[in-house]
Amino acid sequence: MGYGEVDQTAINTIRLLAVDATAKANSGHPGAPMGMAPVSHVLFNKFMRFNPKNPDWVNRDRFVLSNGHGCMLQYALLHLFGYALSMDDIKAFRTIDSITPGHPEAHDTPGVEVTTGPLGQGFANAVGLAMAQAQTAGTFNKPGFDLINNYTYCFFGDGCAMEGIASEAASTAGHLQLGNLIAIYDDNHISIDGDTKCAFTEDVMKRFDAYGWHCEYVEKGDTDLQGIEDAIKRCQDVKDKPSVIKLTTTIGFGSQLQGTGGVHGNPLKADDIKHVKKQFGFDPEKSFVVPQEVYDMYHKTADAGAAAEQEWNKLFEKYASEHKEAHTDLARRLTGKLPEGWQKSLPTYKPTDDAIASRKLSESVLEAIYEAVPELVSGSADLTGSNNTRWKKAVDFQPPNTGIGQWNGRYMRYGVREHAMAAIMNGLAAYGTLIPAGGTFLNFVSYAAGAVRLSALSHQRVLYIATHDSIGLGEDGPTHQPIETLAHFRALPNIMVWRPADGNECSAAYYVALTSKETPSLLALTRQNLPQLEGSTIEKASKGGYVALEQEKADITLVSTGSEVGICLEAVKTLKDEYNLTTRVVSMPCMEVFDAQDKDYRMSVIPDGIPTMSVEVMSTMGWEKYSHEQFGLNRFGASGAYKDVYKKFEFTPEGIAKRAKKTVDFYKDVKPLRSPINRAFLQLI
Amino acid sequence: MGYGEVDQTAINTIRLLAVDATAKANSGHPGAPMGMAPVSHVLFNKFMRFNPKNPDWVNRDRFVLSNGHGCMLQYALLHLFGYALSMDDIKAFRTIDSITPGHPEAHDTPGVEVTTGPLGQGFANAVGLAMAQAQTAGTFNKPGFDLINNYTYCFFGDGCAMEGIASEAASTAGHLQLGNLIAIYDDNHISIDGDTKCAFTEDVMKRFDAYGWHCEYVEKGDTDLQGIEDAIKRCQDVKDKPSVIKLTTTIGFGSQLQGTGGVHGNPLKADDIKHVKKQFGFDPEKSFVVPQEVYDMYHKTADAGAAAEQEWNKLFEKYASEHKEAHTDLARRLTGKLPEGWQKSLPTYKPTDDAIASRKLSESVLEAIYEAVPELVSGSADLTGSNNTRWKKAVDFQPPNTGIGQWNGRYMRYGVREHAMAAIMNGLAAYGTLIPAGGTFLNFVSYAAGAVRLSALSHQRVLYIATHDSIGLGEDGPTHQPIETLAHFRALPNIMVWRPADGNECSAAYYVALTSKETPSLLALTRQNLPQLEGSTIEKASKGGYVALEQEKADITLVSTGSEVGICLEAVKTLKDEYNLTTRVVSMPCMEVFDAQDKDYRMSVIPDGIPTMSVEVMSTMGWEKYSHEQFGLNRFGASGAYKDVYKKFEFTPEGIAKRAKKTVDFYKDVKPLRSPINRAFLQLI
């Protein structure tokens, strides 16, 4: 079809919106938008299928800007194609409470699929989106009903290419033969330190080839629109491999500083802005200008996308009549609601039931609910047998030609790639049809911290199954024993950190995790066996904290989690026998959920007038919020049989009782002795 | 020279020590030691130069077991070659307080260079060790004095090969043309989930080739000792590239379960142990057997190593006479002590000096001390201009043929590879001649969490220069604004987390960081300007916390860090004017250092009888240890100009005063009102 003047005008319009918005904000990154405007134009106008009026259409093509600092590119495109992002929003770039923040945030901006900016994340999210497409297609497509066939497109730059998370994700995508994933590498040779030759001289395409990707190269990315189009077409034709296009561009194309680090992260100077506008045939005195023919062209494309959605809706209606059950399932999944009554499948336990490790309890939950919750997909970063993340009849998610799985498999083999696993799960969740759970050792969730943070920030319903949760893992020793990990994630906003003490609490953790549409969860689970508690129920534990043992006229409250709750209950007898003290015990499987209960309830659990001591075999940080004194472990652990390790650090009934006695004595003279729940003022939330 | 029976006996002895030790511990990983015993034998006995009697000899060859779960391989070698690791130590494998913990720990076991186990770390440490060798050689070698020319050898497995951190490090090593680095890839096709074909089907050697590595392949790694030797020799001959040998081995070689996941992480069954011993010609009824000829052979090699060290010592004496200054410098560095009087170079500030961002203050420290502290090497993960980590006259550490640096350069260009940077710094520090500092945004230190943890666990003197430390970074927004990060690292044992409030505090942070030989430090630094405080000195700040403003009969103590200390000082006036309250202000730049002061001092800073409120513009977690009430930010931030963001969240004199007033009122009736420093019992440390 060829490209003409209006195409060039559109490209320059995108460039200048980025120039004007960063100048007005006096902050931001004009360079990448100016360099990638041509490929954006070709991709969005010639290839991508989307309806700006319904950014949630499930079969839309997904676009991920992994180099999220270039977000003015994305905001400009969203605006020009007619998403609910106005010119005023563009003008409010990088100002408080705008929908155009400094990096793209999925939760706040229509048309932004995932939250990017932290480098490499978007690339791995794109792999997750493509996996979700393949899994959902494998599940729902039927002969004559190619319902789910969208592409996932991803832009990434040199920074993303250097990040390990992107390497992990690329290797995964190659293994999985994700034919609907097309990534475009902005090879502009510039990162913040200047020319990439100072640190990054590898052959990126050879590396992607090694991962099993189809590789294309477009040399003149600034101008060769037809070459870009042809390359994308060839990528679409490769069905059994993900594709990457290396696109050599000039960062800050058009600026007097083009091709230098000077245009990466700073607005252009006033005279340079005029220079660029003149050069592009725009009025140098005017800002935020969109020629009507650009709106016209893009809105026509948007209309075609809307029409495509209409066609799809008809197909989906027809699907309803021929595949009623599948239709109902998919339609329900898109609402985010779980199937009616699914929670009846959750296992419950009596105190007389066997002691069981909470990682095994978690496995029993998965085994019990996987049929009732078909959108749940599980997986592990190569610790399947240790994380207990796989139900017995699970089918692996694999390309069928591998002979070891199917596209509709619900078990993901992430390999030893914790960070990519987490970011892929963010992509799986963002697709809209799946709820991902993924396992690793709790200590190695830290490898994935960058992506866990984005699960929280972007409100993704993702479950981290984090086993081997303490020194209780024993012999593997300090390199594997978490000390700081729960404190870390408890300090992270919008994530629920669970540490269940028994079977009912474990079921409660899954109940709350799966029904919380906008919040990820981390389940810290033991390697060692735990007894079933006397006072636990799913309902009580679903409040995040509850009284596991109530006593009249108690001298002290012990508040604890997970494997230590049982030891605290044992300590009750020691405290009575040795010190004549009466002890209440509170189990607090999830602080965040407890914090969300009303104050009366919280005060009833941790009341005024009684000293409270926390017991948890890791960093005490954070426990002051719920206790006057803290018994924990603010040093690294030790390698040995777990009972020996617990004994070394005095996490025994005697060790607890000794400290509880000191706590009672210490607070005897304090009047009034307030519950730590009682605070002078509320925190901003 | 060929290989004979005694070589095979030695190899099988190594295998059986791993079999016996894991069986006795009823825990551990026999598979990798059994598979890698042949290459270990060839490498340690034919190539490596080391003196077991002096594991600290600076020019020894370094060995890193990146697949650290196979540590019985390393312990067996250390024992057999005569390091201070006895057969009783082998028998105490994985028991409490042994020097043979579940994964190798550098700080505790002679001959273990770096702490490994968390996958991929050791590989990146090895890159750091090789960089340190190249940098130290570049600095100290002179014509006729090839003082520093050791090799770094690294074993790694499929797990390490999958980890992003290893990808980042491999790309870095290829760029840097590290000819003295030789990595051996245990291609055994098995990881915990079974055959690696379920997740890992990339072409690993093609990938290393893409990074610029020299690649070798030995197909029969179980038996082809000569092939292994020849491959290592060819690698040694390649001087301008790091080398990798892909070695196909059989995991658990000799076991009935060889070649399966069953031998990866579980001891062999009793009958299998007998089977293996019989097969290898050992007495099936005996355990922990070392034929004398094996000791003899290995001790001869060790003696040759000792002799090599003697030769080297002579060369170093001669060096003393011809290059006195360099000799003194190197000899001093090896003691870990800084040059006499270096601290006199630290900048000091008066209250009348300009307001300056603490990232700039940090730059001024580097500028002031780099000549006085020649072992200091700086760098950044591609944020040099933002982290302010580079002194003006710095030379980049680069292969000279790149034309952009020298081997003796002291500035590292890590690229956008935070995790590898941190692990490389652990390797740089472990080498013994350098103190590495490396920068990124505080938020992205989280990408490096796995390696930061090992800085702490393995007692490495590493400095993390973490700029853009809060919502004060402004427009980049929530994706870049740390909330949980300081809580995370404060909860990690053995790391000092600094957040200096002004120039003197910044100098104090460097003073304590550089003089703490066994503890890493993280310096959280602002993007925005900070005033120089009235009451600060290097000496006071070096106590971690001090009274910045004392007042008679104070109604409240405000305790704060970094950018909020100045705002607290402003709030003093607001509190007096609006509420007639008298306010003390404490600056607490480093909690860990404050905790190390005696109790009298700490109580003088945060005394009994006065309510204390903390002010820090991020998670309040951890502040309960020093305050009764906490003003912080337990939600994600916002994108906007930093003053607008501070205002939105009420981090203003008014916002502080309002909450301080509530705190005073709330605690009026509590008697006695104890300082939070006052506790019922001490924590285990």
Automatic annotation (TrEMBL), chains A, B:
One of its GO terms (biological process) is pentose-phosphate shunt. Mg(2+) binds at D158, N188, I190. Its EC number is 2.2.1.1. Substrate binds at H29, H264, R359, S386, H468, D476, H480, R527. SMART domains: Transket_pyr. Pfam families: Transket_pyr, Transketolase_C_1, Transketolase_N. Keywords: Calcium, Magnesium, Metal-binding, Thiamine pyrophosphate, Transferase. It catalyses: D-sedoheptulose 7-phosphate + D-glyceraldehyde 3-phosphate = aldehydo-D-ribose 5-phosphate + D-xylulose 5-phosphate. The record marks H29, H264 as: Important for catalytic activity. Its cofactor is Mg(2+); Co(2+); thiamine diphosphate; Ca(2+). It is an enzyme of class 2 (transferase). Residues 356-532 form the Transketolase-like pyrimidine-binding domain. PROSITE patterns: TRANSKETOLASE_1 (PS00801), TRANSKETOLASE_2 (PS00802). Catalyzes the transfer of a two-carbon ketol group from a ketose donor to an aldose acceptor, via a covalent intermediate with the cofactor thiamine pyrophosphate. Belongs to the transketolase family. This is Transketolase. It comes from Aureobasidium subglaciale (strain EXF-2481) (Aureobasidium pullulans var. subglaciale).
